[in-house]
Amino acid sequence: MLGLMQNQPLLISSLIEFAERHHGDAEIVSRRVEGDLHRYTYKEAGRRSRQVANALDALKLNFGDRVATLAWNGYRHFELYYGVSGSGRVLHTINPRLHPDQIAWIANHAEDQVLCFDLSFLPLVQAVHGKCSSIKHYIALCDADKLPADSGIPNLQSYESWIGAQSDSYVWPSFDENTASGMCYTSGTTGNPKAALYSHRSSTLHAYAAALPDVMCMSARDAILPVVPMFHVNAWGIPYSAALTGAKLVFPGPALDGKSIYELLEAEKVTYAAGVPTVWQMLLSHMKPGGLRFSTLRRTVIGGSACPPAMIKAFNDDYGVEVLHAWGMTEMSPLGTLCTLKNKHDALPAEEKMKIRLKQGRAIYGVDMKIVDEAGKELPWDGKTFGDLHVKGPWIVREYYKGEGGSPLVDGWFPTGDVATIDADGYMQVTDRSKDVIKSGGEWISSIEIENIAVAHPAVAMAACIGVPHPKWDERPIIAVVKKPGMEVTRDELIKFYEGKTAKWQIPDDVVFVDAIPLGATGKMLKTRLRELLKDYKLPQL
Ligand code: AMP
After folding, report:
1. Cys staple from 253: which of 31, 62, 98, 323, with CB 3.0 to 4.6 Å?
2. How far is the centre of ligand 1, averaged over its atoms, from the C-alpha of 524 (Å)?
3. Domain 437-533: which topology?
4. Is 186 a catalytic residue?
5. Residue to mutate, 236, 356, 430, ligand 1, most ligand atoms under 8 Å from C-beta
């Protein structure tokens, strides 16, 4: 017997329709590429998203055609999120930090028909458009009078004249909720990038789950500033969850430095922000010297790479801001786990609570996870045993776009490429990417743990731990360190700093001071590149 409830597909258009109807006066504030602040409401965003849908119809785009963006977090990008997916096309957000050849490769692979870009990326578009054979229309996200003359880009129009010519009356179509809504290519540190192809169903379910109290805890009372870019895994789904809850949205545009973010947090009374650790490092470095305080910020979600304990401590102890450590990946839309404490942890001493907060957290309903050994056998949840982390759920990839790389699943589970422990309460802790694991004398050393200790030293800005070959132990850890400007620390001081903080045999054998640690397009440390740079390095005792 079937249930007798209304059968309404979960579609992305329903989120903006809801926000427009029930939170029509909630604000969306954006710092524009021009530098000024733009402000309007969900009502206006909904109206303009419908104009986008009509403008795509006018270009004679088919259902399922890909529309690409190279854009910062801002109101026009937000309208494309809804206008493109809501009308049945697929939003392809491209990471502008990728190499131009990789961008051209991705655009061709996705067979993008339209490319919408912020003017900051004009030189990039000028460099790649000749190689992007499928793109027929270029839209600059600007007013008509800002459209660059003689850009050399064919069929270029300004976004405002493109949508301005269209009616705002449009009925969002209804279709199968499993239809593709968006795509995002993985950073592709090995081989060509592969695309996760999200569906309306997966994105809507993810938006519901992300808003839950033990996840990102979003409400109509919040003003949310996603520093995490809309070009990388849909800004962790915040543009969708914010519409679902009616929260005020504050978009930082291209200004991601500490001063600009601080000013925006304060001016717009932001209660809640989300981003990767490097962005928060810049914010804290800006605030400390002048003794600046937050007047409204209460929570911040930090993920994308491991959040160092020093950062959780600084936010919590110095500024009264709760840090929620999050873990996920492009293939997971992206959220998998979030770290919030349970009632039973209330009575624990601060140090014990910190140990839990450092973990990547508990699975969100919708995501199941397990750790397995090399033979695929499930490992115990004891908080100590390391294993390959596998996940499954309705917002996790089943296959990559165009079947690239074959079926990624193992017995129905997606292998994340992360190595982790899970404790008896279900808190997962990532110890490494599987390709970065350090094995010394048959035992694993967590490079994340070794890095966290180094960055707790006051003179250390950034640290990356890698394994180097050793005749007796197979591998030994060394740590590459970037010093903070004007600060000094010696190799021996740093090695001594490890004493008592980790087991003796896990202390790095050496410290290599470097000017910078190579970062990938999504801001993560590129250890493959670091290993290449240090290929002639020899351990001092050998
Ligand atoms: P991406 O698909 O580019 O977002 O990268 C996903 C990868 O980032 C994961 O598989 C992890 O290796 C890493 N990652 C994400 N969040 C965290 C976190 N909180 N701690 C440690 N690593 C993380």
Report:
1. 31
2. 8
3. GMP Synthetase; Chain A, domain 3 (3.30.300)
4. yes
5. 430
Three-class DSSP category at 534 = coil
Six-digit token string for 387: 């294993």
Helix (H) or strand (E) holding 3: none
Q: Can you tell me the distance from the alpha carbon of 106 to that of 96, in angstroms, rounded to the nearest whole number?
A: 11
Q: What pLDDT digit, counting tens, does each position of 394-448 carry?
A: 999 999 999 998 999 999 999 999 999 999 999 999 998 888 889 888 888 889 9
The SS3 of residue 8 is coil
Domain with CATH 3.30.300.30 in the chain: 437-533
With a 6 A CB cut-off, is 303 part of the ligand 1 pocket? yes
Distance 449 CA to ligand 1 centre (A): 15
The answer to whether 56 touches 89, Cβ cutoff 8 Å, is yes
DSSP one-letter code for 141: S
- From the candidate CATH numbers 3.30.70.260, 3.40.50.12780, 3.20.20.70, 3.40.50.300, the one assigned to the domain spanning 22-326: 3.40.50.12780
Assess whether 268 carries a catalytic annotation: no
H-assigned helices in 59-216: 75-86, 100-110, 122-128, 159-164, 200-210
- Measured CA to CA, the distance from residue 415 to residue 390 in angstroms comes to 4
What pLDDT sits at residue 188?
55
Positive or negative, the CA dihedral 154, 157, 158, 163 is negative
Distance 305 CA to ligand 1 centre (A): 5
Which residues, 6 or more positions from 463, have their beta carbon under 8 angstroms from its beta carbon? 450, 451, 454, 455, 479, 480, 481, 482, 517
Confidence of residue 224 (pLDDT cuts 50, 70, 90): very high
**Contact predicate 82/13, CB 8 Å:** yes
311, 339, 371, 524: residue to mutate for ligand 1 pocket, most atoms within 8 A of CB: 524
